[in-house]
Amino acid sequence: VNNTLVDDVFRGTCRFETTCSNCGVSSKTPDEKFYDLLVPILSSDEKGVYTSVDECISAHLLPEVLDDKYHCSKCNSLQEAKRRMNLLHIPPILSIQLS
């Protein structure tokens, strides 16, 4: 493997896992490389109170509910499912892009 300095320092690896809420069968995507995480900034209910970067990252990594949008191969129909991103390798320097 011919890794560059950028790969060694900034590249991470993640995988998405989707689990059918009806039958519990999970499917995983192939491992994906990333060089930064695009993390949405959480809105705050109170004026002048800011959400921490840690809280934004934690919320970003929570499972996302897919309402009747996931075609389950076992159920052979559209089902509710939960999809989450698993960080398999966090690089030595993690670049976070807040949006």
Automatic annotation (TrEMBL):
Residues 1-99 form the USP domain. InterPro entries: PAN2_UCH_dom, Papain-like_cys_pep_sf, Peptidase_C19, USP. It comes from the Eukaryota. GO terms for biological process: protein deubiquitination. One of its GO terms (molecular function) is cysteine-type deubiquitinase activity. Gene3D superfamilies: Cysteine proteinases. Pfam families: UCH_1. GO terms for cellular component: cytosol; nucleus. This is USP domain-containing protein. It comes from Leptocylindrus danicus. The lineage of its organism: Eukaryota, Sar, Stramenopiles, Ochrophyta, Bacillariophyta.
